[in-house]
Write a structure and sequence with these properties.
mainly alpha; 14 helices
Length: about 400
């Protein structure tokens, strides 16, 4: 019933849902990976900078225990000496500290990316709900965290025991070593311990990272209703979009109708098609279509043309060819130049006759157009069918 009602979270999170979670400071994180990488980098850092640090610390210890008698009775000189020694210590430890800082900043973002969100800092009183707290205590996540803690304890304890067992003689022998050699030996023991422990934690990290990613994906899962609602919000209501498209078409139709009074002639079918043409000699290289339509739109084009005394020319093949192959506000196809030239020649002669009189121009007879441009001709229909068959064959081959 829950699945049928669309209330069960079965759908993967959308990009918008993930983005919203990031805005709230909710990203996948693996503390085990950060801990493992930090321990491993500490061991590598000591291995890389250990000799320099030990040398600097030896110098600091020697200088601290050996100074002139006057310094002991002058507070200012004693303070200056301590400041200088402290700076030396920090300078010696700076490379090691820099390695740890870089790893501490980079490692948490390896699976979730860097993120700074003020919303995550805002107080959330739901976290103080005791019922929710009890639910989190007895959840699968809490069980996994408990198993990880137990696993870490076992691994760290076992590794520490093995290291101490293997290095037992070296640890006991530290008491008999000089300070300089002893410090180097201690550093090497620390490196061995850190690398051994971090190597053991790789097992925990390899389990925790996939678990965190899967847990995060499951937490962000959505119901089908939520996905539909989000798509509706992102893409807009279909009814509103349809209404907007209808209004846009109506506005485009009105703009088209407003250009009909500037046309020179309207070529008709005579009832099903109507195409208004305009040509300005010296400004246009070819006539353009300012309006076209079928049925009711064609009837309206003829009405507006009659109101503004625009000549109507019945040429069914030419009207069909212009409507099919010519776009609004663009030049007519080159193959129709001759046919349209006959129409415009008659129209311009008729205009001169109406203005100055003289011989009545002879209306052109049947205006021929290339068969492949007339959509009702047998040639055009055969070409259309051949093209359709070719597309079907290409689709079958691709399939």
């Amino acid at each position: 019933m829950a699945e049928e009602s669309g209330l069960e979270r079965t759908e993967p999170a959308t990009s918008r849902r993930i983005e919203k979670a990031r805005e709230e400071g909710d990203v996948p994180r693996s503390r085990e990976m950060a801990t493992c990488l930090l321990l491993l980098s500490a061991g590598v850092g000591i291995l890389m900078t250990g000799d320099t640090v030990v040398q600097r610390l030896n110098q600091f210890l020697a200088h601290s225990l050996h100074f002139e008698r006057g310094v002991a009775f002058d507070v200012n000189l004693l303070f200056a000496m301590q400041v200088s020694h402290t700076i030396q210590v920090f300078a010696a430890l700076a490379p090691f500290a820099l390695i740890l800082v870089v790893v501490a900043l980079v490692s948490p973002g390896l699976i979730g990316g860097w993120l700074f969100s003020l919303q995550a800092l805002a107080p959330n009183f739901e976290r103080m709900n005791p019922v929710s707290g009890l639910g989190r205590m007895f959840s699968v996540r809490s069980l996994v965290e408990l198993l990880k803690a137990v696993g870490k304890s076992i691994i760290i304890g076992f590794v520490a025991y093995e290291v101490m067992l293997h290095e037992y003689g070296s640890i006991i022998g530290l008491m008999a070593e000089p300070s300089k050699e002893g410090l180097k030996h201690v550093a090497s023991l620390i490196v061995i311990s850190l690398i051994s422990i971090s190597s053991g934690l790789i097992i925990i990290m390899a389990i925790d990272v996939p678990f965190q990613l899967r847990s995060y994906a499951n937490k962000l899962k959505m119901t089908r209703q939520e996905v539909k609602q989000e798509n509706k919000e992102a893409n807009g209501n279909p009814q509103i979009k349809a209404r907007i498209r209808a209004q846009q078409r109506e506005m485009a139709r009105r703009r088209m109708m407003s250009k009909i009074p500037t046309a020179d002639v309207v070529v008709t079918n005579p009832t099903h098609y109507a195409v208004a043409l305009k040509y300005v000699e010296g400004r246009m290289s070819a006539p353009i279509v300012v309006a076209k339509g079928t049925d009711l739109v064609a009837a309206r084009i003829r009405e507006i043309a009659a109101e503004h005394h625009i000549p109507l020319m019945e040429a069914p093949p030419l009207a069909r060819a212009l409507y099919t192959h010519a776009e609004l506000n663009t030049q007519i196809p080159e193959a129709l130049y001759t046919a349209v030239a006959e129409v415009l020649a008659y129209v311009f002669q008729l205009r001169v006759f109406r203005q100055y009189g003289g011989l009545v121009p002879q209306k052109p007879g049947e205006i021929a157009v290339p068969d492949e441009l007339d959509p009702t001709s047998a040639v055009a229909m055969n070409l259309k069918q051949a093209k359709l068959d070719g597309n079907l064959q290409e689709g079958a081959l691709n399939g």
